[in-house]
TrEMBL record, chains A, B, C:
Lineage start: Eukaryota, Metazoa, Chordata, Craniata, Vertebrata
Family as reported in the entry's similarity comment: Belongs to the ammonium transporter (TC 2.A.49) family. Rh subfamily.
Superkingdom classification of source: Eukaryota
GO cellular component terms listed in the entry, alphabetical order: ankyrin-1 complex; plasma membrane
A Pfam family the protein falls into: Ammonium_transp
Protein known as: Ammonium transporter Rh type A
Regions annotated as coiled coil: none
Keyword Transmembrane attached: yes
GO process annotations (BP): ammonium homeostasis; erythrocyte development; intracellular monoatomic ion homeostasis; multicellular organismal-level iron ion homeostasis
SUPFAM superfamilies to which the protein is assigned, alphabetical: Ammonium transporter
Catalytic activity of the protein: NH4(+)(in) = NH4(+)(out); CO2(out) = CO2(in); methylamine(out) = methylamine(in)
């Protein structure tokens, strides 16, 4: 059992959380009001996205055998704070007469903004405290809102499903922070950094709700909504078949790997995001899904181990393979499509140069921002756990006694040994 | 293993259930018909509420280590019967030419009516038989429909998200029944009255689907639908941050408690219910959520143990803290808001006096009705389990042999002892 | 532990899957385009059906203690391939100017088509390889599309909730294949062909999402959409009460059985399918649900064991009782209703003769098609597992070491025995 939580921690976390909530309420009191034109049209879309954020991301990360409470619980904490902070940060760029208007669409955008912090959380999973994650959420959503404004209002690029502004941004932000927060003590695989049979089953709940509602994610703020739905649906389906095929192919015994099925099947949704609502025809969407599946499987299989051992980047959930590389792929697809076809959005012709600028700025801001945030999170004051207590809920949670199958097994062994010794 | 289910039980339960179903079908044949004006507009809202009732309430109660089958199964039984009975009981107050019209809105209201019985089930969880629960459902929904009529048609009070008529009603009905059904033998904590790691994970499925779809619950029958959505969304978010902060603060080692995260995070949805569709501004909704979180956490931490030991009220799921106190808080918020602002609903000005009357009548009818129902359920004929078999699925279900982690542990110990004895 | 997967298998599966995906993309490139009239009206309905296919069917089959990865994983594989193949097979019957138009409605129909393969998968669960299942999906959806065309365009019969064309078709197709693939070695119950406590809990996730969204399934392509929703809702509710009653009644100790609650509660949704959007009045829908519940419970209790022992049909999930018999019941209900009332659909009067023809053709095509498919799947080349490795994920998946509670128990026993032997 890990040692008791530093008791000073409880005051630090509680005071930080309460302080942030008070600040948010005061800012809401000053700046936020109902939109005068409240339509419920987008509400089913909003609910799908909402389920993705809390159930999808939350359960996807429960694959670790002893970190399920933290995965689903801190995911909820981050998202519940982020959706309040996101309204403010995104709203400050679009104020009218000193007021931020809230409606279903701005709630969708706020939910979106939390996704960046949740993706970064995936890279850092098991190695950061809730105090650190609240600070990261605060900083990342602030920078996300700036980059999003740059991409959509300055460059006037399209990124309707947010391949670049959410997925690539969240991934490289988290990876840069992970690099700064590198733990040499975790070079050898930590005994808790693995799944059990049931933790893998819980993670599939997350996978499926993400997979199913991804068309809503990519189409929620699209002009050509049904086109975005159709493209995303087929990209995901094609990606899934390829993921199964490659998962078997890259394994020496030809067996499927749950980590690939849980993650790489979703890469098609990420990669088709930027051009989801463009008329690229379903077969092109499928082609994008196929490439995304290939890139993602190969990333998990060959790149993640190398990044951990050579590049000092420990990426717990492999967000580089699910959000990073497929996000860049989405950005590139946007460049290619706008180079081939003339597409107009909001009265502006989309150009490959501006799409490339959007991708470049996103990566640059994410990496610099993530590294700076990582440096801030390194302040010892913030309650980072020791290497030994990584990936273990009991550092932060009251955990029921017979907590995991693994523990019983060990306690059995212990009794056995004591018994032998006594003879 | 508990002793075999009394074989006479199977006839009692089966005959009661079949009899009730026959009565319902006959009454439907006589009274119920399709509404002539069938619109599918509210169907997505209905589905969200439907998910809350069956998945949300069902899985929220699966936290007990050996009572998951009963939690999710009896929840389904109660809700499936209640939604039929609710149409009749609510419909009798609104008949036109001797007919009850069914449409999506009346189906939502029927789903709502089952929530009262499911909340009361939470207080009684693990201590009552399915026979008792069918009778409770029958009686509670009948009284709920009367009180709802009183509140909305006689007092013309507003309670759009049903803080009073569902949450407070269901909680105090269940608590009054629990008082009457008090079991002195359970004064010391029952060994099965606790969670395991995976049962807590299953419960989080319930928590998240309740949390996510609560805006649909509070807005389903609202005039100002989007206002109700926005207020509920922010109340829940603020409540969640406060719940995490206080969960750490009230624990001596600063650790989070799953029971608080599973339950108190939802109190914001309950408390904002009464005035969800009033223009209270998002920051006020957040403020209500904050108070609800504080009340709920403190209730779980300090009040529930006292109620069990001093007041002879054993509240298994802590419904007093999730539905009871936040429900009263919602009623009070309604009184305050109608006192400050002039609000009109259905052509009537809302008055604090009528809001207070609604809250008072709800509490009175719930407590008297619950106590009477408890007295009826006490009839030994109805198959209440012995104290020893409380909180144990195997009293009512065929359970797979290696049922819980705990059992293996014990059986291991047993073998061990036998082995030592044999030496 | 099962022996290593035949390494040649990985090439066979991967090449087959990649080849199929390439063929699909080429066919999409040639034939498929966006519909010119893209409406998002049906999108919430689509999402409900989508959840049923991936979460509902997927988790419903996770009840086996060591086959959860395969259940939810291969379910995803089959559905992701099937929804692409279904668009093509259904589309070839409705081409306009050489093109298949994709819109939300055709995506719903494609999701529907995958349900047939998933139902057949339920009969074969644990006994077939993913190679076999891809081939079955290909063949079954092709034949399904032909039969559906026959039923709806030639016979002009109604089957709005697809009691016949999906449920009965999928069930008898799978049962005929199971007959051909009969394994004498599994006559005695396989040790892995059973559930654990938590696998039964996971299966309830599937049950509930199927139960909740079944009204969307039956109404998705209905003209009288809300009528179909109401009828399905009440049929399911009545079926659920009857299932609980009979589950207790048929057990010698009066206990409920999870397999019945997981499955027979859904039979009301199947049986009301054919006449879901006809004005049969809610009480008739309930009556259909009651009969479906009775038939399904009795089927699970008495028929399935006989079919396995006498008829050489091993039906792992009991699809005969959930989809087969209730599907026929739905077909018969359609005959009866069209005989009693004059109903018109698409300008044609529905006749009992045509309804009967639809039922007959469906059963005939399903049984012949399933038997032929079973014969093809019998080719040894396709990687069928040995009897011993049936119902075991580790034949196809990398499985975490301490995989199930059961294993620990056994490994404990093993150590113990070795220990005793050593003394």
């Amino acid at each position: 059992m890990p040692p008791d939580f530093d008791t000073s921690m409880k005051f630090k976390f509680s005071i930080l959380a309460l302080l942030l909530e008070v600040i948010v309420i005061v800012l809401f009191g000053i700046f936020v009001d109902y939109d005068s034109n409240l339509s419920a049209n987008l509400y089913p879309h909003f609910q799908d996205v909402h389920v993705m954020i809390f159930v999808g991301f939350g359960f996807l990360m429960t694959f670790l055998k002893k970190y399920g409470f933290s995965s689903v619980g801190f995911n909820m904490l981050i998202a519940a704070f982020g959706l309040q902070w996101g309204i403010l940060m995104q709203g400050f760029w679009h104020m009218e007469r000193g007021k931020i208007s809230v409606n279903i669409e701005s709630m969708i955008n706020a939910d979106f903004s939390t996704a960046t912090a949740l993706i970064s959380f995936g890279a850092l999973l098991g190695k950061t405290s809730p105090i650190q994650m609240l600070i990261l959420t605060l900083l990342e959503i602030t920078m996300f809102a700036c980059n999003e404004h740059l991409v959509t209002k300055v460059f006037k690029a399209t990124d309707v499903g947010a391949s670049m502004t959410i997925h690539a941004f969240g991934a490289y932000f988290g990876l840069a922070a992970a690099l700064v927060l590198y733990r040499p003590g975790l070079t050898n695989k930590h005994e808790n950094d693995e799944s059990t049979y049931h933790s893998d089953m819980f993670a599939m709940i997350g996978t499926l709700f993400l997979w199913l509602f991804w068309p809503s994610f990519n189409s929620a703020i699209a002009e050509a909504r049904v086109t975005a739905i159709i493209n995303t649906y087929y990209s995901l389906a094609a990606c899934t078949i390829v993921t199964f095929a490659l998962s078997s192919l890259v394994d020496k015994r030809g067996k499927f790997s749950m980590v690939l099925i849980q993650n790489a099947t979703l890469a098609g949704g990420v990669a088709v995001g930027t051009c989801a609502d463009l008329e690229i025809h379903p077969f092109s969407a499928m082609f994008i899904g196929v490439i995304a599946g290939i890139v993602s499987v190969l990333g998990f299989q060959f790149l993640t181990p190398v990044m951990a051992s050579k590049c000092r980047i420990q990426d717990t959930c492999g967000v580089h393979n699910l959000h990073g590389l497929p996000g860049i792929l989405g950005g590139i697809a946007g460049i290619v499509v706008t180079a081939i076809k003339t597409e107009t959005r909001n009265g502006h012709v989309l150009t490959p140069a501006m799409q490339a600028a959007a991708l470049g700025s996103t990566l640059a801001i994410a990496i610099v921002g993530g590294a700076l945030t990582g440096a801030i999170l390194k302040i010892p004051f913030l309650g980072q756990v020791s290497d030994q207590n990584c990936f273990d809920d009991s550092a932060y949670w009251e955990v029921p006694e017979e907590e995991t199958v693994h523990e019983i097994h060990s306690s059995h062994r212990d009794e056995h040994s004591r018994f032998e010794a006594a003879m």
